[in-house]
Every structure is written in C-alpha cells, then in structure tokens.
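Sharing a chain and its predicted structure for anyone who wants a worked example. Both blocks are below, sequence first, tokens second.
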Amino acid sequence: MRPSPPETRASLILRLPDAADVAAWDEVVEIYAPLIHRLAIRQQMQRADTDDLVQEVFAAIAKSVSNWLDRPDRGSFRAWLLRIARNAAISQLTRRSTRTLGSGGNKVLDLMTELPAQQSDVSSQFDLEYRRHVYRWAATQVRDSVNETTWLTFQLAHIEVHSPADVARQLGVSVGTVYVSRSRVMNRLQELVKRYEVQ
C-alpha cells in the first residue's frame, strides 16, 4: 500500500491523536518507519536495535502527538519526528552501553560526547532519506499515470542522462517528443513532491 495523495498529509497528522484511527497510523508508519530504520542502519545500529528504535519512536509519537499539535511553535512534523528518533537512539545507545560495560569504563561518556557533533549529520541524513523516499513515492505515482514510452523517455534522458537525439533514435520518436516527455514528467514530479512536503 502506497501513501495516500499528498493533499491529505496535514489532515493525516491531525488524525493521529485518535489512537483508534488505524488507517492514519498505518499510513504514518508506512511513510516514516523505513526512514527511521535506514537512518539507524547508517548509524551502525544492529537490526534488532533498529526494530526496537522504530517501535520506541512511534510509541513516543502516540504518547505526545496531542501536546505537539497544541503547541503554536511546533514546527514541522518531520523535524519533531527526527528529534524523537534522535532522543530514542541516544537512550537506546546509553542503555546498551551501560548494559555491556557493567562497571567502570568511560564508553558511555565517550559516546554521549560524540553525539552532539553527530546530530547535524544525523539530521542531514534523515532529510536526505526523506527526500529520497518522497522522490520514490512521486516517481511511482507519475510512472503509473503516464504511458510506458513517456516514462522510458524521461528515464533515459533525465535519469540515465542520454542525449535527446540518442533517446529519440533508441525509442523511435522525435527529439521534440523527448523534450516534451521529459518536461511533462519533471513538472509532474515537482508538483507531487511540493504537495507531499506541505507539512
């Protein structure tokens, strides 16, 4: 199941305080869980720890989303979710480190002092993963809404960066068709990405 159309994003977030709204929660988890998971893997967390982290993040969101929505200075949902994910990762890392160290040692202290320096990097990685996720979602939407030749023209000319003349020759279309198809797909992708990132 793909995320629903982007126009519903703001209203989707407003539905989260209702714990019984399974459809809203399923959609939010579908959108954001892969991002949190990939971010954790990039931070070299183990598979079991990443699964725990994802659960912890969504439990924290469920517990505090109403308060977050009531705040006039709340900022974006994505930034809030990243802050929760970062705090949960720090908490998990601290628990794991103290459990494995037992007594003595400065590993926890070392890890904690490294984290503030990594936070902007983590934030950048999360934003990059989010943009990739949005692009993949938009690309799927557009690919499903145009004919195969239009999509293939875009893929060859824009993604694989073949010259318009080469693409036209390969697909048996005019160079003008290559430009029109590429432009049409790009405009649709940009429109979807812009609408998706309303929140």
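Comments welcome. Confidence is low (pLDDT under 50) at residues 1-8, 100-109.
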